[in-house]
């Protein structure tokens, strides 16, 4: 299976492009930009800390199947718990995809995407990664505001924003655009389909039947990078 896939790093099948940062794995250029952003935020009293980086295919598959089998908490778009066993196969797929990517289609496979929080305000053991933690009154609100102003300076953007992406809004999720945009352009539906068909994902038949539409909505449909980021990149190219 691996020999047939052109770019295995796009699907969580390779770690050769990664380096270790705080016990997490990140793509090399992403790690450099993250360190620069973290140092800048520290000057403003914010401790940007990783709580997720690279995840391989098997780990993402485990997350998916545990939710599909009812062995892991499944949430609706309002963060209310749902019983997976009460859903039809298609409703189950749609519900999981609100907060979790299909294995092989997660941006976390690339090492360019990270989940972060402000360690000066909340302990990772208390962190739930829900919207209210990054909204007014939440422990990561100042971090969220800082990112709004400064993340583009370091090449990062939020790919999951309300009404601009298939995945639910994730204010804690950043993507390093200079590399992730290239990876997204290289994503192959053919290779992804081959990978899913060879896996033991559940419910496989329903997923395979909808795979093209699922890729369009949950992989390709992401929020655009802000103009400030694109302008900075264009300026660096012309220098």
Summarize the structure.
The chain is α+β, with helices and mostly antiparallel strands. It contains 9 helices and 8 strands. The protein has a 4-stranded antiparallel β-sheet with strand order 3-6-8-7. Strands 1-2 form a two-stranded antiparallel sheet. A two-stranded antiparallel sheet has the order 4-5.
Structure description:
With 239 residues, this protein is α+β, with helices and mostly antiparallel strands. It has a single domain, classed as Muramoyl-pentapeptide Carboxypeptidase, domain 2, CATH 3.30.1380.10. The chain is built from nine helices and eight strands. The protein has helices spanning 28-42, 57-68, 89-96, 141-150, 177-186, 189-198, 204-209, 211-220, 227-238, and strands at 18-21, 24-27, 48-52, 74-75, 81-82, 113-118, 156-157, 173-176. A four-stranded antiparallel β-sheet has the order 3-6-8-7. The chain has a two-stranded antiparallel ribbon with strand order 1-2. It has a two-stranded antiparallel ribbon with strand order 4-5. Strand 1 and strand 2 form a beta hairpin. The protein is globular and about 50 Å long. The mean pLDDT is 95.
Could you list some keywords that capture this structure?
four-stranded antiparallel β-sheet, single chain, alpha+beta, 239 residues, two-stranded antiparallel ribbon, 12% strand, Muramoyl-pentapeptide Carboxypeptidase, domain 2
